[in-house]
Specification:
This is DMSO reductase. By secondary structure, the protein is an alpha/beta fold. The protein has 4 domains: 97 residues, no CATH class; 241 residues, Rossmann fold (3-Layer(aba) Sandwich); 193 residues, Dimethylsulfoxide Reductase, domain 2 (3-Layer(aba) Sandwich), CATH 3.40.228; 121 residues, Barwin-like endoglucanases. The protein contains 27 helices and 30 strands. Helix 7 packs parallel to helix 16, helix 11 runs antiparallel to helix 14 and helix 11 packs parallel to helix 16. The longest helix has 17 residues. It is globular. 56% of the residues are buried. Molybdenum atom (MO) binds next to loops. One ligand MGD binds next to helix 19 and strand 20.
């Protein structure tokens, strides 16, 4: 007999509901995994099996469309509504890939009895959970009073408005626009997600966003570098499978046997935070064995451009114009403009008559790669050189090859900017960018294909104040640095659970006199707020998603009756704005704001309202990222020497720098005390903390966090499979169940992202909040811990 957890709960599946296992999960949405529901199902299973009854039990329902838009794949979902209640969810018709179990769990999310229904005012200490219900009028009065206090006692810069990854739809962030109209508040800097791409790829290629997802199946060799698309890009993993079915190879670089590594033909396990050494070693193989695409490098990158040895900076023809790179023309033995017609410049000027004064950028990159020969890279990464060299050759020799970076876990390591950039160097040196089946990939969506507009009019005169780097949040807030923060508004994010070093974040929250949290649930951040406001959920909120994660532009309709007194983010902002005489910026009907977002793409509100979703590929069918080697930099070439890195105090050529918190720094006091490298992973039952509080999801992955530990490391600590264990360091503790495995590099433990201290124990209790780093990186995957048995 099938285990309860694996069985479809509702045996009476209709044809429409029977869209794979997902629909079964939709039915679970209302039932959860309560024994009563499963017992009933088991009776049905034994009696009727999964018979198709022919009845359409949802025929009487109204349909409502909505875009599932946490930081994920932004699927358009089709909801079935009966008597104002959401009863079923399916994947929308226009999606490029099927929606997932989390999307279907929106049934449980909408109907959850844990939903906030009324404004809550804190009456005890922050963190105590001691709240009392108040009316919206009282809530708005309180907000007005506290905002006025902030304006009178520190000005607009003493106000923070914090978003997050909970809802990427355009109308959600109204309050941040409102703070702009107050004059401009203080924001945070540093991307908690993928700062590696922001700081390592963007300056090289000129733009962060690239859409190469549609080319995955056309590739012959793909490296999933420190990311796990089976879980984090579920909808598109079929394309990787198709690539493999066509004879292509998937290679995963991950210290852990992730679900993707498990499906790959190649898997290497570097130490966390050593990916830049691995990439440079691969580059060395490619250069030494003549596998580079010289024609491409010369035509489309700054590799042949000259660096003046005296200044250590590019030899610009016009020092005031940083696009006037120069190269050496061997035909005329002269230095000429990088874009001079008919010139084939030298990639290396070693041994030429200008060698005393100049090197090329290529020479500098080669010197960096040369540091990572067999012995060095084996010692640093713990991987075999033969494996690294084979992967390098196979990648370079493949007709079409990709490096999938997405928003990979390696980007949440201290050297993430250079880890990303060295992978980009590798792709450029092999000419694997700008053609069908090629690419260096960062997750993206419709905004790459067609432009989008802003929903709300922003204050052009809003002051941009000094920001607070997220890793320093707690510390700076408590020191009133750079300014005293009097008021904080948090929507779409859950910083107490997701920002590094939870205890310091909690201290910061306590120090701010008035914190407002707008959410569907009383989560970890709401527990540290002075006022909690209930917001409407998907299917209850009008919105539009023209986004950075899906090629489909989607509408969100309000067809479900929200519980209690929930309001939309726009409605809440409108009322606050009214009290400050700024309601004119938020007074329109949502359809007007949706129309503004769509206008630059040539789409009207009415068209989207009718079609529900529009695939932007249809509007730009010939798009290929960096087609024909044209980049979005001022020179249109890929910039391999990066001034922005120098400006932050780091080298201009990407290199490997070992993270400070690392087991290889064996002499450091920290590594002696906390010898294990911990990294984080996403699971199928959450997008960060979103979904993780739903029974459906807890049934799927268990009610407690898993802590993966290598068999030998576990034995050394007397830990057995399933034991309750605690990962800890000076910052805090994270408790979970030991998963003892050989499929994890010795010396590394894997912690799960998305748990909150309100329901279990958050892994952010231990994560590193190191700062400064190049690009203000979230260093959660450069965290040392020790693990002990017991809670
Ligand atoms: N189901 C689900 N899907 C999601 C999300 C989610 O929370 N849940 N979140 C979305 C978002 S916002 C993001 S950013 C993406 C993240 O997508 P992924 O990057 O795929 O997710 P992670 O699980 O954080 O990390 C993937 C792998 O990185 C490995 N890793 C950690 N450190 C290192 C390192 O130093 N080097 C190498 N080579 N590997 C390392 C981990 O062992 C892990 O298996 O997923 C998106 N999709
Ligand atoms: N320990 C650890 N920390 C991490 C990571 C990790 O792997 N490990 N990953 C990092 C990454 S990659 C990312 S992207 C960040 C994500 O971190 P966050 O952006 O903080 O993500 P969530 O925890 O999902 O928070 C989203 C919140 O928005 C709420 N929400 C959803 N829709 C709406 C809406 O319409 N209106 C309002 N007002 N609220 C809404 C949800 O209920 C939820 O509370 O976390 C980072 N932090
Ligand atoms: S959670 Fe992500 S993958 Fe799942 S339906 Fe929503 S957007 Fe799609
Ligand atoms: Mo992320």
């Amino acid at each position: 007999m099938t285990k309860n957890s694996e069985r479809a709960i509702d045996a009476k599946l209709t044809r429409r509901a029977f869209v794979g296992a997902a629909a079964a999960t939709a039915a679970v949405g209302l039932a959860g995994c309560a024994p009563a529901a499963t017992d009933e199902a088991s009776a049905k299973d034994e009696g009727e099996g999964l018979a198709f009854t022919g009845e359409d039990e949802f025929a009487d329902c109204q349909l409502v469309y909505g875009c599932c838009s946490p930081e994920c794949q932004h699927h358009l979902l089709k909801g079935y509504v009966r008597d104002g209640k959401l009863v079923k969810v399916e994947s929308g018709e226009v999606n490029e890939s099927p929606a997932c179990a989390r999307g279907f769990a929106r049934v449980e999310m909408c109907n959850s009895d844990k939903r906030l229904t009324k404004p809550l005012k804190l009456v005890g200490e922050k963190g105590s959970g001691d709240f009392e219900e108040i009316t919206w009028d009282e809530a708005f009065d309180l907000i007005q009073e506290k905002l006025q206090y902030a304006l009178d006692n520190g000005g607009p810069k003493s106000i923070m408005s914090q978003g997050g990854s909970g809802n990427f739809s355009a109308l959600t962030s109204a309050f941040s626009t409102f703070v702009g109209w107050l004059g401009g508040g203080t924001s945070t800097s540093g991307n908690m997600c993928c700062a590696g791409i922001d700081s390592g790829l963007t300056p090289v290629l000129g733009q962060r966003m690239q859409l190469v997802r549609n080319e995955i199946a056309n590739s012959n060799y793909i490296i999933a570098w420190g990311n796990n698309p089976v879980i984090s890009m579920t909808g598109y993993f079929g394309r990787f499978q198709e690539m493999m079915d066509n004879g292509g190879t998937l290679c995963t670089i991950d210290p852990f046997l992730s679900e993707t590594a498990d499906k790959s033909q190649e898997w290497i396990q570097p130490w966390p935070g050593t990916d830049s050494a691995v990439a440079l070693a691969m580059l060395k193989v490619v250069i030494d064995e003549g596998l580079t695409d010289e024609e491409y490098i010369i035509a489309h990158t700054t590799a042949p451009c000259l660096i003046d040895k005296k200044t250590n900076a590019p030899a610009f023809a016009d020092p005031a114009d940083d696009t006037t790179y120069q190269v050496y023309d061997p035909a005329t033995k002269t230095i000429v403009a990088h874009d001079a017609a008919g010139v084939t410049p030298l990639l290396s000027v070693e041994g030429t008559e200008i060698a005393n004064d100049y090197v090329t950028i290529y020479d500098l990159i080669k010197a960096e790669a040369d540091k990572w020969g067999k012995e060095a890279v084996e010692a640093e990464s713990g991987c075999s050189y033969d494996d690294i060299a084979r992967i390098a050759r196979d990648y370079a020799n493949a007709e079409h090859a990709m490096i999938i970076q997405n928003m990979g876990g390696y980007q949440r390591t201290e050297n993430a900017a250079y880890a990303t950039a060295t992978q980009v160097y590798l792709a450029l040196f092999c000419g694997h960018i700008g053609h069908r089946g090629d690419g260096v990939y960062d997750a993206c969506g419709s905004t790459t294909l067609v432009p989008g507009g802003s929903a709300y009019e922003a204050n052009p005169d809003a002051v941009k104040n000094e920001s607070i780097p997220v890793p320093c949040f707690g510390e700076w807030i408590c020191q009133d640095k750079p300014t005293k923060i009097n008021f904080m508004w948090i929507a779409q994010g859950n910083p107490v659970a997701q920002w590094p070093n939870t205890n310091s974040v909690k201290e910061g929250m306590k120090h701010i006199p008035f914190v407002v949290k707008v959410d569907m649930f009383l989560n970890a951040s709401a527990m540290y707020a002075d006022l909690v406001l209930p917001v409407t959920a998907l299917f209850e909120t009008p919105n539009v998603t023209h986004s950075a994660r899906s090629a489909v532009i989607s509408i969100s309709e309000a067809g479900v009756t929200p519980p209690g007194e929930c309001k939309t983010d726009l409605e809440i902002t409108r009322e606050v704005a009214k009290r400050f005489g700024l309601e004119q910026y938020f007074n329109e009907d949502p359809s007007v704001y949706i129309g503004r977002v769509l206008e630059p793409a040539g789409i009207t509100y009415e068209e989207l309202a009718e079609k529900k979703g529009i695939n932007a590929w249809d509007l730009n069918p010939d798009y290929i990222a960096y087609k024909d080697g044209e980049f979005l930099t001022p020179t249109k070439k890929a910039h391999l020497w990066v001034q922005a890195w120098v400006d932050e105090g780091y080298p201009a050529i990407a290199c490997h720098q070992r993270p400070e918190e690392h087991p290889l720094n064996a002499d450091s006091e920290l590594a002696k005390k906390y010898p294990l490298a911990s990294v984080q992973r996403k699971t199928r039952s959450q997008v960060h903390t979103t979904f993780k509080n739903l029974e459906t999801m807890l049934c799927m992955d268990g009610h407690k966090p898993n802590i993966y530990i290598n068999t030998e490391d576990a034995a050394d600590r007397g830990i057995a499979e399933g034991d309750e264990v605690t990962a800890f360091n000076d910052r805090g503790e994270h408790t979970g169940l030991a998963r003892v495995t050989d499929h994890l590099k010795k010396g590394v433990v894997v912690l799960e992202n998305g748990w909150e201290d309100t329901t279990a124990s958050s892994s952010s209790n231990v994560t590193s909040n190191k700062w400064p780093t190049l690009g203000t990186i979230h260093c959660c995957n450069s965290t040392l811990v020790e693990v002990k048995k017991g809670a």
